[in-house]
Design goal:
InterPro entries: MFS, MFS_dom, MFS_Efflux_Transporters, MFS_trans_sf. The chain is mainly alpha-helical and about 375 residues long. The protein folds into two domains: about 10-190, Growth Hormone, Chain: A; about 205-385, Up-down Bundle (Growth Hormone, Chain: A), CATH 1.20.1250. The protein has helices spanning about 10-35, 40-45, 50-70, 80-100, 105-135, 140-165, 170-190, 205-210, 215-235, 235-245, 250-270, 275-295, 305-330, 335-365, 365-380. Helix 12 (about 275-295) runs antiparallel to helix 13 (about 305-330).
Length: about 375
Amino acid sequence: MNNTALSADQPRGRAWLATGALGISAFAIVTSELAPVGMLQALAQTFQQTAAQTGQVVTVYGWVAALAALLSVALPARISRKTLLVTLMLLLALASLAAAQAPGFPLFMAARLAGAIAHGVFWALIGSVAVQLVPAEKLGRATAVIFGGVSAASVLGVPLASYLAAVTGWREAFTVISLLALVTACALLRTLPALALSAAQPLRSCGHLLKNPRLLTVYAATACIISAHFAAFTYVEPLLRDVRHVPAAMIAALLLVSGLAGLAGNVIAGRLIDRHLKPLVCFALLTGAAALGTLALSFAMPLWLTGALLAVWRAGMAIVFVGLQTLLLRRAGAQTAAASALYVAVFNAAIGSGALVGGVLLTMTGLPHMVLLAAVIIAAAIALL
């Protein structure tokens, strides 16, 4: 697996096969990341922990992934990026298998942290790889394909892992995730072409990126939008149950529909974002924020309207995720690797911060006010773009 520059006449079909393999990789990574959310009670019972203690698995995972992404800019250029991507998926497979076999909570946590390292470095590399796979005018579509794996994980991967945990046990669910990661590693090995050298950069190069106002606005918008989104999304179940008074039996169905709406948002982004990036992202921000804010209001509404608002929120945010990544890659120029690493670090740190701040505000102000504030912040972020 040499690391020579990607030739200009790289077969177009193979490039899109490789892009699809990266999308499947995103599916496996995000499924692994979020799987414990649907297994917290089972994990807590197995390891004799409280639900709050077990929930630290998700929190620490996000912060370790952010740190790994930031440190990835210093990876030596002599390490083949194709080899590295395949190795990271193998590490995720081994980490998931180790989690499935862990006899105690400390070893389970250690296995999860190994997976978080693979997660952070993989996402830091994926932007610079996408730039090499497809022409610049198709970059938005390629990003949509990759982020489609993220949406598919929330629609199919996480519910399926939760279902397997309920039916066969959480250890079996992590074993299936391990097999999925192994299959994905094989797909990357077969489809990825040789990738151009990416020189190692000192960590201070990330500080230099923050002096670029065009990149700084993307990072600031990402921090605001992702923190606000996950402050609300972390508590979407009590939002539907306690504020919108959705019957418990219907919550799972609404979440499934909203996840499908997220996939639709990816499709829309893939078709339009290369030609209409800023207008599309701004429109998605406003409509998503308006839908979220309406969900936080206490007036009565029919169930179908609640589902529609939830779907608009998720579809809008899916478009925004693709748009922010595409905007970053367009503005990064020759600094794609470092810019992507810093972006992934900001993104993952914002997820953890959003969930933490959302919990604090929930206690201080109540759920409706917290969600309404999140909607206002998402809408206000349009000023940064």
